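[worker-b] picked up task from shared queue
[worker-b] task type: protein-ligand structure
[worker-b] ligand name resolved to flavin-adenine dinucleotide; SMILES cross-checked against name lookup, match
[worker-b] sequence length check passed
[worker-b] input payload:
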Amino acid sequence: MATARFEQPASLSQVTDLLAAGGWSLLAGGTDVYPARVGRAMDGAWIDLTRVGGLRGVREDEHGWTFGATTTWTDVLRADLPPLFDALKQAAREVGGVQIQNTGTVAGNLCNASPAADGTPVWMALDAQVLLQSQAGERRMPVAEFVLANRRTARAPHELVTGLHVPRRSARARSVFLKLGGRRYLVISVTMVAVVIDVDTDVDGSGRVAQLAAAVGSCSARAQRLPALEARLRGQPLLALAGTAIDPSDLAPLSPIADVRASAAYRLDATATLLRRALRALACVSPSPPGRGQG
Ligand SMILES: Cc1cc2nc3c(=O)[nH]c(=O)nc-3n(C[C@H](O)[C@H](O)[C@H](O)COP(=O)(O)OP(=O)(O)OC[C@H]3O[C@@H](n4cnc5c(N)ncnc54)[C@H](O)[C@@H]3O)c2cc1C
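[worker-b] inference finished, payload out:
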């Protein structure tokens, strides 16, 4: 009979010591790990990260925001965050139902490396860095370099992810996440888009796109940024975003598959529609910063 071993360390150093010894797998909310083992007894050696001190919650400093690895999607929804993170909150609301959001973590979603992970395109559009820890110390890398392929990341077996760091933007930065599935709720994405913009204010008070990042999930083995679209829209008047046409060349980084959920052509068509809607939503917001200080 299969037997499993569980450890519930309270400190990061205990986790890195166990990982250095080899043979251990990591467990956070378990909402990806357990469904992958339905009908099978758990076996192997597991480190439960949910009791490790300092890994949960959102910290802000002058450089930006750090989301601890075991921060749940409900924690994201409840956090006091500026409009830059609207897309992250919109994605958090789409990850399963409330029970899943109460348990599933931001790092678990990323490390599972599903092409349909709702968080990944948002982190990519936010230019987030993945924080990795081992006995040897910390290293960090952009999300786009961390997720290598379907179910594959750049994490070494002796490392854990301790969090995601999002660099500070202006107080005018904001974002949108849109997801399409076969039904409205509790559904795996057919496609999803995340767009982040930062805005300059012209002398006449109108807005201009200072920075724009767009990422698409569920349309390739891993989420992809759209550099051609981003370059074309940078410097444009904010209001012009509302009429943006999506050119097929904008979607060149995508390589969608056809499966039970949608054909490849439908995925591309739906992605263009979601991008147009996201850009229209971002065009319609005031270029003035909201009332709270953000640096
Ligand atoms: C009913 C249901 C509906 C769902 N709906 C959605 C959905 O709509 N959208 C969506 O994106 N996902 C969905 N999911 C998947 C899942 O809930 C999310 O991906 C969740 O965020 C996973 O987090 P977790 O903490 O439960 O991960 P776990 O299951 O604990 O771990 C997932 C993987 O990440 C690794 N891992 C976890 N933490 C770390 C760490 N700190 N460092 C390194 N590796 C780590 C684990 O070893 C494992 O390989 C759904 C799941 C269920 C069961």
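[worker-b] attaching auto-annotations
[worker-b] Residues 4-49+58-167 form a domain with the Uridine Diphospho-n-acetylenolpyruvylglucosamine Reductase; domain 3 fold (CATH 3.30.465.10).
[worker-b] releasing lock
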